[in-house]
Design goal:
By secondary structure, the protein is mainly alpha-helical. It has 20 helices and 6 strands. It folds into 2 domains: 371 residues, no CATH class; 63 residues. The longest helix has 29 residues. Pfam families: Xan_ur_permease.
Length: 468
Amino acid sequence: MTQLRSRPTTSSLDQFFRITERGSTFGREVRGGITTFVAMSYIVLLNPLILGASADITGAKLTIAEITTATALAAGVMTVLMGLVGNAPLAIAAGLGVNGVVAFQMAPTMTWAQAFGLVVLEGVCIVIMAASGVRERIINAIPEPLKIAITVGIGLYIALVGLVSAGFVTRTPDAAHSTVPVRMGVDGHLSGWPIVIFCLGLLLMIVLLARGVPGAVLISIVVATVVAIVVNSVFHVQGWGLVSPTLPDSVVSSPDFGLFGRVDLFGGFVSAGVIAATIFLFTLVLSGFFDAMGTITSVSDEAGLTKDGKVEGMGKILMVDGAGAIAGGVTGSAPNTVFLESAAGVGEGARTGLASVVTGGLFLVALLFTPLATVVPAQAAAPALVVIGGLMMTQIRRIPWQDTDFTIPVFLTVSIIPFTYSITNGIGAGLVSFVVLRICKGRWPGWLMTGLALMFAVYFGVDLISGK
């Protein structure tokens, strides 16, 4: 009798998510959802590290508590929505790399509300492009090697941010009158417990990832944090930076929704200027939908959800992904996008949106434990930036270096992004050089590519044009 009573509920759930149809089980979906959460929950710790490291044009900084709340809230709601609407085992959270654009490029030229306003506009643009089919045409217009170069360049950029946040790399002061802009540690050598914690965390993370341990990133961050707390309590260490590893009075507290709804949609065009704000918006859109497209395709293919080269339900998935960027702006967590770590859940057997509902639910539960984020020092979390940057760089093997149409444009994209701390600059340099090369070789790059190159040319020459 018990089995007969439970059958309608189980059958209804099965039919809605098509669990049996896709060759999965309820248990596999739950395990897959938990695994994905463990694999990507580090974003709740890392996003505050990135957004909290920068001040806006007024000098205002965001607090760790409110960024942590915003990150978990957006990830939870949008991942659940992906499960219910897209019915895909794809989790969504604040995108690494693109959040660096918000923190280090946009915020210094405008207020945080204005920066998050541009993030909302990015999401609106992606939703419109997904609905109209323009997204696919733009993707087809930009050559694959340049798309790969953007990913690789962002990987280097993220790794550099991690090294700087940990203090492994520091800026050489102007007083030194040196032509070398950066150096290792302080005074050219490594010293102090914070650096030791960073190195231990980085080595542990590398080993765990190499051995295929699920949740390697999160485990390494937790272990490094525990060691940092012990070391700090014994030796009373100085120089941790933004966060000192000290246990809070309570690990549970009410979420801080202070960033929710703090959005100024068009103020950024006034503060940063129309051209600069437009370039920022373009960069967010470009990075957002290209990263998502690659992730969605690869994870869906691994899950067996691709037929004849097309992802099942791609239209709905892309709409939810675009809505994730909007949610990132509204909550104050930076653009949200599909995470490659979703593949970890697929590896555990996840094939449907039920896994995403489980993952999203765990992110919402994490809202009650935001004080834990104020315990994690940069030296414990930064190794993840370095490792993820390294993993993103593996795409470089797909670049056709022997093709002279791409050799220099790809190199400029990959190198200028980290060297100038600007994803915008790298993308622009790559597009402009590619278009110039094609035209000089008598090969028309197309109106769309030419238009994008002209827009970047104006961006690079705006000060010259304005007479500054």
